[in-house]
Write a structure and sequence with these properties.
By secondary structure, the protein is of the alpha/beta class. It is built from seven helices and six strands. The longest helix has 20 residues.
């Protein structure tokens, strides 16, 4: 997919600026309602089926019912993640558009560098993420005008500047983060109040869940992303899906 540094044709710079200002401190429901009005099915929620994504999907049922849903299946997800995905399909009656990495690239990586190359260096880990996540995301976003994520500022040091609505220059479309100001407590209060299904790994000390080999439980004093690529320093713990600029 070709990246663009210019604003998506679907939204003018003036409209984006106005929306960013208007939705700066708006409730998640209002942000999702704006996505529904402005983009409808041309927008999609990117879900890894963590707690935040489950809240987003539940809210979207009412406030953004036309917005699509997709996930990236890296081939190394925990079985518990597939279980909650199946619960979502049955409970919400939604289609989960699934994007896999390119077979030839995965085969070449594992044949030449083994099955745990991502632990050798930051560069090697990012190569694995690029093949299993970043390239499939490019295909998942192709033809869309906006994508919606469960990013929250509280999650880690790499996400403190996240905005509710912004232009994603790396992918050339609008990126919307309705839960940006939510706390962990608010996420779980919503899940409990609305009986939202969630990944059972959360009950086992996993606040952030990705590929099985790259995710562990965290200790009470650690931040939410400490269990992702824990052998690296905190400022490097992103896979490339959410580029910092």
């Amino acid at each position: 997919m070709s990246h663009s540094s210019s604003l998506s044709l679907a939204v003018s710079p003036e409209e984006l600026g106005a929306a960013s200002k208007e939705l700066l401190e708006a409730p998640a429901e209002e942000v999702l309602a704006w996505v529904e009005r402005r983009f409808g099915s041309r927008a999609a929620i990117a879900s890894s089926f963590g707690a935040e994504d489950m809240v987003l999907m539940d809210l979207a049922r009412t406030h953004a019912p036309s917005v699509r849903l997709f996930t990236l299946d890296t081939g190394r997800l925990p079985p518990e993640t597939y279980e909650v995905m199946d619960v979502v399909r049955r409970r919400y009656g939604v289609e989960i558009e699934t994007f896999f990495p390119e077979r030839a690239r995965v085969e070449a990586l594992e044949s030449s560098k083994g099955y745990f190359s991502f632990k050798q260096s930051i560069e090697a880990r990012k190569e694995c993420c690029a093949i299993r996540k970043v390239e499939p995301l490019g295909r998942a976003l192709a033809g869309r005008e906006a994508w919606v994520t469960g990013l929250r500022r509280e999650q880690s040091v790499t996400r403190t500047e996240v905005q509710a609505v912004a232009f994603d220059a790396d992918h050339g479309l609008i990126k919307v983060n309705p839960l940006v100001r939510w706390s962990t407590r608010e996420v779980w209060a919503y899940i409990k109040a609305h009986s939202v299904p969630y990944n059972v790994l959360h009950d086992r000390g996993y606040p952030s869940i990705g590929c099985a080999p790259c995710t562990r439980a965290v200790k009470p004093y650690e931040d939410e992303r400490a269990g992702r690529w824990w052998w690296e320093s905190p400022e490097n713990r992103e896979c490339g899906l959410h580029v910092r600029r």
